[in-house]
Amino acid sequence: MIVVQLKSTDPNDKDRSADEAADMAKKIVDAVPVPVVFWGTAVNEKDEKVLKKIAEVCERENVSLSPVEEPIHKGVGASALGYKHTVVASTPIDINLAKQLNILLGNLGVPDSQLLNDPTTGGLGYGIEYAYSVMERITQAGLTQEDEKLQIPMINNLGNEIWKCKEAGQPEEEVPNMGEPGRRAILMEAVGAVCYLLAGSDILIMRHPESIKLAQEMIDDLMAEN
């Protein structure tokens, strides 16, 4: 799987147009044989324009459109439904809001099989603890209460959060007890990955190859037969 972060479309950055983003998206989808996720900027008005255009030009390629928050769920949801794509339903770390958005998308006609749940990802400290606890509640409600709207696979945009944390890039002379910055950030991402996997994450978006390697080693250890 490849995740394309559409940062250049941010109105507060380069503010690239929906047409530019869609042209790039089509080239990527045509060039790779794996699933593709297009991740917007969480600026709803702009994301709606960009994701709807990507849905149109990538018709029937089943790309994943993200983040789809409640204010834009009708527009992006309808485009995803019409052009045969997957919707990443994004809510602010709340089990009830996550369920509600999944229901709203279902009412629109988007099947559960075309949904992913983004519960919002914290990168460090209280953020990761809060996200972890809410994800555990979602997972347990889906399993023990057999709530179908909370059995949607969860996706976490972990790398995006970890590498923008202040602690990931602070010079060693400022925080000598935290170790070398490059290694520190890699370990932060790997530890975060394990936390989210244990909480029920199905898809982790990660950035550094070494972090991915460490997380995969942990998965292999957990899956190993005694």
Write a brief structural summary:
The protein has 226 residues and is of the alpha/beta class. The protein has helices at 18-31, 44-57, 73-83, 95-108, 126-144, 158-162, 166-169, 181-199, 209-223, and strands spanning 2-5, 36-39, 64-68, 86-90, 115-118, 155-156, 203-204. 51% of the residues lie in helices and 12% in strands.
- The Rg value, from CA coordinates, equals 18 Å
Strand order of the largest sheet: 1-2-3-4-5
Summed over residues and divided by their number, the pLDDT gives a mean of 94
Largest sheet: 5 strands, parallel
- Beginning-to-end CA distance, first to last residue: 31 Å
The poorly predicted ranges are none
- Helical fraction equals 40-55%
Topology summary:
Layout: E1 2-5, H1 18-31, E2 36-39, H2 44-57, E3 64-68, H3 73-83, E4 86-90, H4 95-108, E5 115-118, H5 126-144, E6 155-156, H6 158-162, H7 166-169, H8 181-199, E7 203-204, H9 209-223
Parallel strand pairs: 1-2, 2-3, 3-4, 4-5, 6-7
Helix pairs in contact: 1-2, 2-3, 3-4, 5-8, 8-9
Describe the overall structure.
With 226 residues, the chain is of the alpha/beta class. It has a domain of 118 residues: Alpha-Beta Barrel (TIM Barrel), CATH 3.20.20. The chain is built from 9 helices and 7 strands. The strands form 2 sheets. A 5-stranded parallel sheet has the order 1-2-3-4-5. The protein has a two-stranded parallel sheet with strand order 6-7. Helix 2 runs parallel beside helix 3, helix 5 packs parallel to helix 8 and helix 8 packs across helix 9. The longest helix has 19 residues. The protein is globular, with a radius of gyration of 18 Å.
